[in-house]
Write the structure tokens for this entry.
Amino acid sequence: MARIGILTCSNCTQETNCAAVVCLGDMRKRRGFFERYQDDEKLDLIGIITCSGCPTLAAPEKILKRVRALAEYRLDALHLSYCMTALCPFLEKYQAVIARAYPDLEIVPGTHIPKERMQFQNDVKELLCPSATEVQDMNDIIKGTLKRPK
């Protein structure tokens, strides 16, 4: 049995209302970065946490505090969500801090694999800093209903 956790982007989960629906769906269906697990291996999702937000001087301590919330439950692997790997300019720093603190924890750089990385980045930027007048969220990207400004 693989005991896994998922670390998501704070901006995506809190600012765009992403509920990790695609991450969890791909985990259940063993797609994307969850293909690494054997079909007959049980996956035990220990929990989902968000990053500590875009870094301040306390970012390394904050990220470790959040990871500890999962690691204390015998976590085998920590999956970094697609939004973390596609959007976070501090990803390498976070990975290094986590690896130093938890050398036996496997850090997996992804959950699902969307088709267009640049489009995803642009869409999320639009959600976080909208130029459109209509309020939109991560569900609009997932469903393909995001209205782009003309």
